[in-house]
Amino acid sequence: MNHPEQQDPVTEGRDELAGSRRTFFKRVTGAAVAFIGMGLAIPLVGYLVSPAFKRRDQTWVEVGDVADLPVGEPKQLDYLQAVQDGWLTTKLHKAVWAVQQADGQVTVFSPLCTHLGCGYRWDDPDKRFTCPCHGSVYDLAGKVLGGPAPRRLDVLPSKVEHGKLFVIYKEFKAGLPNSVEL
Amino acid sequence: MASKVYEWLDSRLKLKTVERTLLDEPIPGGASWIYVFGSATLFLFLLQAITGMFLALYYAPTPDHAYDSVTFIENEIAFGPFVRGLHHWGASGMVVAIGLHMLQVFLYGAYKPPRELLWMVGVVLFLITLGFAFTGYLLPWDQNAYWATQIGINMVGTVPVIGDLAVRVLRGGETLGALTLSRFFAVHVLFLPATIAVLILLHLFILRCVGPAGPWRGGAERRKSGESEEPSYGLVERRLRISEPFYPRQVSMDAVVMLAIFACLSLLALTVSFPLTDKADPSDTTFVPIPEWYFLFYYQLLKYVHGPLEPLATWILPALFFLGLLFWPFLDRNPARHPAARPAALAAGTGFLLLVFVLLGISLRDLHAVPRTDPAVARGKALYVQFGCAGCHRIHGEGGAVGPDLSYVGDTRPDRDWHLRHFRDPQAVSPGSFMPKFPLTDRQIGDVTGYMLSLKRPT
User: Fold this and answer.
1) Does A31 lie in the same domain as A99?
2) Cβ neighbours of residue B300 under 8 Å, at least 6 residues apart?
3) Do both A22 and A92 map to the same domain?
4) Which residues of chain A neighbour B269 with C-beta distances below 8 Å?
5) Whose CB has fewer CB within 10 Å in chain A, the N or C terminal residue?
6) Does B78 touch chain A (CB under 8 A)?
7) Number of domain units in chain A
8) Which residues pair with B279 in a beta bridge?
9) Among positive and negative, which fits the CA dihedral B127, B128, B130, B134?
10) Domain shared by A67 and A150, yes or no
11) Residue A175: left if φ>0, alpha if ψ -120 to 50, beta else—which one?
């Protein structure tokens, strides 16, 4: 040791490391901490948020035979859809309204009222859809006839292959003047 | 700005005093690379804690979903394999770091008075780490996890009197199932972390009370040999005489080692995959589980001890070993710290390490020969069927007799490389052979080779 005994023994070493050497060790520590911090933070944040950026897979699901749909009258079609919820696969019961128009075109409506998302019904004597919650009324084409509904019924993508009707189930935000998918 | 906030906080919380207490800890004999293992272990523990918390975001501790949730982390989550890899390799790293830390303390005689308690708390920390390893191994709920845990629990059952009860308590009932998984999970993520956190603080508190041991020969002794007129100092005084504060040099060494560890673990996590085996199937008793490498030496030891001597290996030896380890500072009464002055202790330590590494070596060698239910073998078997190999080859009486009988090809031709080359180009290694060159990918060649090597005489 260069320094005599009267030095405070604990700070003796610190004096030796004065100036650039001391700064060097500080920088080494800082760099190591920064590398480890970034090396952990980036993957962990990605890991944390990654499900938020995942869109649900939307697949065509067969819901029934077109031949079973009466022309000009809606029919509620029930079916089971496999839904992937994280690592869990569940079968969900879904029901959509399908209408076969006179020209053979099929329109499929989301079963939820555009006002607040209640399930509406077909009022056969009056030939119109009515929502039991707040009294929204739609015609066979989905157009609003009355009540608080802000927009027409939401139409689901549908197609017909070999006489079978396929749809993609979607949900839309309630209460908006335009259809916005959830 | 930051310094102003610090000043404000300091005027209320006396942060500078805390900072000085933490950073100015005297390192007797000065900073050294040999002192990094304790910090390395602490770093690995923190890394395990962090990655563990993140794994828990997606993990589900039920037999129905555990396997699927781990597969989900592996396949669907960004950086999922990386985070799981860090946790997996970090566990191994922690065992290595503790091993080196204990080795250094042992070699330096740093467990001797007044540091007996420091050592004893350290041994308990080591046991808790093994508890983490044991409980964590079950959580993925694959075949290996299930059957390895089954064996581990059954070993507890060989302890007389309390064995049966202990097994039931561990399993949470008669069988290894839903209750076992949930209690292993709870112990792994709640009970053990709480316990280890308290004991780590105790370990550090005792360290600050008794101080680090420093080099073999204290500063005063060293000086005395150089300048004989120097007086002899008391223990604490001697520690303070030639010492250096913990910050900044020792801290920078610790930080560099932590970075190196992090780099190694990241590299392992990114490059070496450790796929799950099949989902745990309690009815499939043919599965041969393989323990983690740090339990392999013990796994090997169990193979040599049978019959009435079995309890010796399953609990008597481990119990004696850990009791001996715990009370080692009181068993080793030799006051000298220099290794040269402690031949008995050094011989005991070396003997133990030799035994461990020889058993580990034998076990690793045997593992390559032991047929185990490997998913690759099953895939290889499927390829064998798919490509109609049985048209020419016969296995246990089934198939054609045009090509060689493959019933025991794993015994007659155990060379993996030969099979790999042979599948790529049969004529290259076996001139004149009329086996066709099948359009196989490298992975398929590996699988079908795995199947070939698994065809052995029952031992």
Assistant:
1) no
2) B359, B360, B362, B363, B366
3) no
4) none
5) C
6) yes
7) 2
8) B142
9) positive
10) yes
11) left
pLDDT (tens, 9 = 90+) of chain B, 459 residues, equals: 889 999 999 999 999 998 888 888 888 888 889 999 999 999 999 999 999 999 999 999 999 999 999 999 999 999 999 999 999 999 999 999 999 999 999 999 999 999 999 999 999 999 999 999 999 999 999 999 999 999 899 888 888 899 999 999 999 999 999 999 999 999 999 999 999 999 999 999 999 999 998 887 644 444 444 444 444 555 544 544 577 888 889 999 999 999 999 999 999 999 998 888 888 988 877 777 888 899 999 988 888 888 888 888 888 999 999 999 999 999 999 988 888 889 999 999 999 999 999 999 999 888 876 555 677 888 888 888 888 888 889 887 778 878 888 988 988 888 888 999 999 889 888 888 888 888 888 888 988 998 898 888 765
CATH of domain B24-214+237-369: 1.20.810.10
Instruction: Specify whether A33 is located in the same domain as A71.
Output: no
For chain B, domain boundaries: 24-214+237-369, 375-454
Rounded to 10°, the helix B317-326/B116-138 angle is 140
Q: Does A51 touch chain B (CB under 8 A)?
A: yes
Task: Please determine, for residue A69, whether its predicted confidence score (pLDDT) is greater than 50.
Answer: yes
pTM over the 0.90 mark: no
Whether A13 has its CB under 8 Å from any CB of chain B: the answer is yes
Eight-class DSSP state of B279: B
Query: Is A46 an interface residue toward B (CB < 8 Å)?
Result: yes
- Dihedral pair phi/psi, residue B135, rounded to 5°: -75, -35
Q: Are residues A152 and A80 in the same domain?
A: yes
- Residues A116-156 have pLDDT tens digits of 988 899 988 888 999 989 999 999 889 999 999 999 999 99
Looking at the complex, report in whole angstroms how far the Cα of residue A35 sits from the nearest Cα belonging to chain B.
7
Cβ within 8 Å, pair A32-B256: yes
The CATH architecture of the domain made up of B375-454 is: Orthogonal Bundle (1.10)
Tokens of B127: 């046991």
Q: Which residue of A has its CA nearest to B266?
A: A39
Using the beta-carbon criterion (under 8 Å), do A44 and B243 form an inter-chain contact?
no
> What number of helices (H) and strands (E) belong to chain B?
23, 4
Is B245's CB within 8 Å of A13's CB? yes
Cβ of B77 within 8 Å of Cβ of A51? The answer is: yes
Judging contacts by C-beta atoms under 8 Å, the chain B residues touching residue A35 are 259, 262
Question: B240–A26: do the CB atoms touch at under 8 Å?
Answer: no
Q: How far is CA B235 from CA A168, B20, B213, B230, B239, in A?
A: 80, 22, 10, 15, 6
Of B94, B99, B121, B106, which is closest to residue B201 (Cα–Cα)? B121
In a domain, A34, yes or no: yes
Is the Cβ of B259 closer than 8 Å to some Cβ of chain A?
yes
Question: Does A95 lie at the interface with B, CB-CB under 8 angstroms?
Answer: no
- Interchain pair A28, B76: CB under 8 A: no
Predicted ipTM of the assembly: 0.73
